[in-house]
Amino acid sequence: MTREADDEFQAEFNDRIDRLPDSVDRAAIKRVQFVAYVLDEGVRVPGIGYRIGIDPLLGILPGAGDVLTGGISLYVVVEAARLGVSYTTLLKMIANISVDVVVGTVPLVGDLFDVVWKANTRNFELVLEELTADA
């Protein structure tokens, strides 16, 4: 991904955040966005421009890394619940994290899966979809 593509990616999220109802806590949305970014997109892989986060990097630690990042990922779910996201969406979010943790514990395959799955970005998308549905 080029710098332009990164800027477009960020601009898309900012546009969607701007369309949120006034009643939505934008600071909480920014916190969720930050956690998702750090876990899934925070590091650009040199040469290919693909972005990964600390989730697959910590996943290299057998078992413990995936459990640790899964625990951090639950913060996104807690904030979503506080923002009033539906029970159904919260269950989808927990399912995304569960898949990430379970598959992530498989040596090598799990690490590669973590690079692609990006559960936290998926969950951030779910939160934005639900909260902007009425806007």
Task: Tell me about this structure.
The chain has 135 residues and is mainly alpha-helical. The chain has helices spanning 3-18, 26-40, 54-58, 64-82, 87-104, 109-117, 119-132; strands at residues 43-44, 51-52. The protein has one domain (3-132). A two-stranded antiparallel sheet has the order 1-2. The model has no long low-confidence stretch (mean pLDDT 88).
Give the helices and strands as they follow along the chain.
Answer: HHEEHHHHH
Terminal CA distance: 30 Å
Work out the strand percent. under 5%
Structural class comes to mainly alpha
Shape: globular
* Count of β-strands: 2
Low-confidence stretches: none
Average residue pLDDT: 88
* Number of H/I helices: 7
Number of domains: 1
Give the strand line-up of the largest sheet.
1-2
The share of residues in helices is over 70%
> Over all CA atoms, what is the radius of gyration?
15 Å
Sheet with most strands: 2 strands, antiparallel
